[in-house]
Every structure is written in C-alpha cells, then in structure tokens.
Amino acid sequence: MHPTPLYRQLANHYLDAIRSGTLKTGERFPSIRLMMEKHAVSLSTAVQVCRELEECGVLEARPRSGNYIRQPDTLPKAVAHPPPLDTGMYVGIHEQISSVLSASQRAAIRVNFASACCPPELYPLKVLQDHMIKALRQDQRLLGVPGPTCGSLVLRNILARRALTTKAHLSAEKMVITCGATEALNLALRAVTQPGDTVAVESPTCFGLLQILASLNLHVLEVPATAHAGINLLALEQLLQGPQRVQALIVMPNLQNPLGSVMPDANKARLVQLCAEHGTVLIEDDTYGDLVDTEQPLSTLKHWDRNDNVIYCASLNKTLAPGIRLGWISAGRWHDRVAMLKHAQSRGCEALSQLAVIAFMGTPSYERYLRRLRKILTRQRQQMSAAITRHFPPGTCVTTPRGGTLLWVELPRHFSSMALFHEALKVGIQISPGDIFSNTRRFDHFVRIGCGAPYSPKIEEAIATLGLLLHNQG
Fold first, then answer.
1. Could you give the 3-state DSSP secondary structure of residue 217?
2. Out of the domains of life, which is the source (predicted)?
C-alpha cells in the first residue's frame, strides 16, 4: 500500500477541521505562506493542498483577498482517517450520569430546571467585577505571579471568622482554598482513602459526588435519608456495626442535595459521635448552608467534633458566583496531606477572584446580599411548588425545604423520571431525573427541579409542558 501523499494528508486535516466546525463557512483559509511556515512544507505542496480543497468544493478564491471556506452540498470522505467513535461527553465516569449529561449537552435547552445555581442577575457580579478591576490597578503584576498553594491567608481568616457563627472553630492556618467544593471533596477523599475502600453516602445524594467516588475507584454504600431529617442514623449505626469497614462517610447536613433536608441538632451530635466511635472519617459538605431561610445560621457538624474526625468542605459557587469556582477545605489533622495533594493536583487557585471576594465578604454588604437572596429564593420556591401542584398528576408530592434552590418531587410510582427527561429534552426543557442521584433504581419516580430563576410566564409554560408529558405517560 502506497503512503498517502503529504498534500493529501494536509487536505484531509483541513477537511476534518471543516467537518468539526473548527473552520466555519465564510472564514478566511490560512494563506500559502502561513501553511508553509506552520507545516514546514514547500510552496508546491501548499499550493497542491489548496487545489485539492478547491476540487472538493470547500475552498473558493476571492480576488486580492485570499481563499475562503465554503460549504458544499456534501463533504467528501477523508482518506485514511477512520471515523471517531460517538461516545458522548463525560463517558467513563459513572455510565448512568454520563449518559444524562451527554444527552443534555447535545440538546437545545430553552428552560433549564436541572441547574442548582441562580441566574447571573441574582449574583453581585458588578460589585465583584469592580473589585477585580481595582485589584488589577493596584497590582499590575498580579496575573504574572502564582499564588500560594493553600490560598490567601486573608480570605482564610475571613472564612474562619464566619464559621464562628455556625459554632465551628476552624483554623485559618489549616484551611486550603480550592476550585469549588468538587475539588475540596476530591482532596478529602484522596487524603483518607485508597482505591477499593468503602465510603458511605446519603441516599439519594448529589450525582457529582457519585462521579467523584467512581473516578477514585471507591466502593459506595448508600444509607437512606429523608427530606425531614436527613440521613437515617439507625440504618447508619447498623451499617457501621457490620463486618464491612467503612472508611469515610460524606453528608450534607444543611440543605442536602437533592432532598433539601436539614438535620436536627441532636442528630448532628449523634452522627459525629457514631463516626468517631467506629473510626469512620466524617466529611461534611456545607455548600448550601448560607442559603437557609433564617437569620440564625445553622450549626455544622464541625461544632460537635471533639476528636478532629470531621473534614469540613464548603463553597461559594451557589451563594456568591458560580464562575469564580472558589471553595475551601478544613481538614484538621489531615491538613498537611491535603495541602500536598492540592499542590500536586492543581497548585494554588488564582488570586484575582480571591481578592474580589475578600473585598466583598469583608464588609456588611455581603450579609445584606445574602438576606436579599434568601428572600428571593423563598418566593421562587413557593411559586414553583404551587405550579408543580397545579400541573403535575394527582399524587405528586413536593418537598418544602427551608432554603436553597432545589425541590425534590415525588411522582406517583408508575411514572418514570428518566422517560420524562428524554421527552422534555425534545421540547428544550432540562430536568434532573431521580436515577442519577443513586446507584440503585429506587428514585426513578423522583425528579429534582431547580428554582433559582425568577418565576415567569416562560417557566409557568415549561412546568405545564412537563405536566402534559407526564399525563401522556399515564
């Protein structure tokens, strides 16, 4: 077999770029001189590439302007290039979740009920942008200097002082700023487990956590949880007393995702005690704690930690600005290992967003902003819940969380949320089907609905459409 000529290899290279959309119709094609420089080819080879593409009908010459991409009726097949496998996005980490995320990415979404975030207009973006501009003016070298692995000590001090309101004593020196709660949870698990270890979680739980556990090759045990009180302590105690060693337990005691539950203080104290007695590391995810509908902050598990057995993780992604991706971890006796893992994994987080957060969180404006956001979210949850009650089939139950952006909706048992997910995507509506919140099939008749966006006729129409799709299922 004769090797493919160089000019044809390059022509196929550019055909692939046109097929994938990297080069778009109407764009200028690289000049002969640029092709010679970038591909280290002769003038004759570069000219032959252009001729080949002209013959394929994808290139047209414009007088005194150069060559431009045009879109023919059909594109020829490239020579000696097998077609790529259509495996979708995120494949390889938890097949069920990957398939849902991949389908969502391919769809044209007009109403997104799958998001746990608020829309941009509810976040103090202008204030943060102003603080960033000021920081750049004050230090023009800011973007040219790497930050410390553990993040800004000033920010860590602010976070430690805020933790006092939740009755938790966190050491700023033993805190690490992370790229959101996802990295914080990754670091916590990597610090205290090895591949093959067993980790317990609430059931249902955040699908992102299931992805993390799958990526770390950890065995998962699910402990039932309710929207009323969170994790079932009796079931957990029986599990911890069993023959299988549970290395760690991950819980969200305040506004659990997806249930929206808040654990009673007595349960929190007992949970911390149980894990300490059985040598199970307790990892607390407090991502949503600041969104609770109360002026009095809820206590964290760390408040009852007397044995330095609780690793505390939190984030500003849902409360302040999803785009800055700032979280933190207070790992106590595992701090040195977490700091080492952070350095090995991603080094320090960028400084600009930390400086903006310091300037905002260090003032009373932050608390005023949170109070206003909580009131808005309370109204939006009530409006969304009422709409679901109006439009969904009889027998549908909706949780009444004490804060946050999420509603956990139980459909009558003969309905399938996965079927609803796929039908809704066809009309541009995205939801989170219950199956992705567990490794079991116990939640197929549940749906998580995000209500971070202000209620509007468009949202009302989308809820009515979901209700109609469910009625068609019945």
1. coil
2. Bacteria
pLDDT digits (tens, 9 = 90+) for 220-264: 999 999 999 999 999 999 999 999 999 999 999 999 999 999 999
- Write down the CATH number for the domain with range 124-364: 3.40.640.10
pLDDT tens digits along 340-397? 999 999 999 999 999 999 999 999 999 999 999 999 999 999 999 999 999 999 999 9
Q: Distance (Å, rounded) from C-alpha 412 to C-alpha 393?
A: 8
Task: Please give the pLDDT value at position 56.
Answer: 84
Measured over the CA atoms of residue 175, residue 180, residue 183 and residue 186, the dihedral's sign is positive
CA 335: distance to chain centroid?
A: 24
Rounded Cα gap, residues 19 and 6, in angstroms: 20
Pick the CATH number of 367-472 from 3.40.50.2300, 3.90.1150.10, 3.40.50.920, 3.10.580.10: 3.90.1150.10
Read off the tokens for 221: 């045990």
Closest CA to 225 of 249, 190, 198, 193: 249
Band of residue 81 on the pLDDT scale cut at 50, 70, 90 = very low
Q: And the tokens for 178?
A: 């992370």
Q: How far is CA 132 from CA 139, 370, 386, in A?
A: 11, 20, 40
Q: In this structure, which CATH number among 3.20.20.370, 2.40.290.10, 1.10.10.60, 1.10.10.10 belongs to the domain 6-69? A: 1.10.10.10
**Positions of CATH 3.40.640.10 in the chain:** 124-364
Q: What are phi and psi of 460, to 5 degrees?
A: -55, -45
pLDDT at site 156: 97
Helices marked H in 150-232: 153-163, 180-192, 207-215
Q: What tokens does 51 get?
A: 């001729």
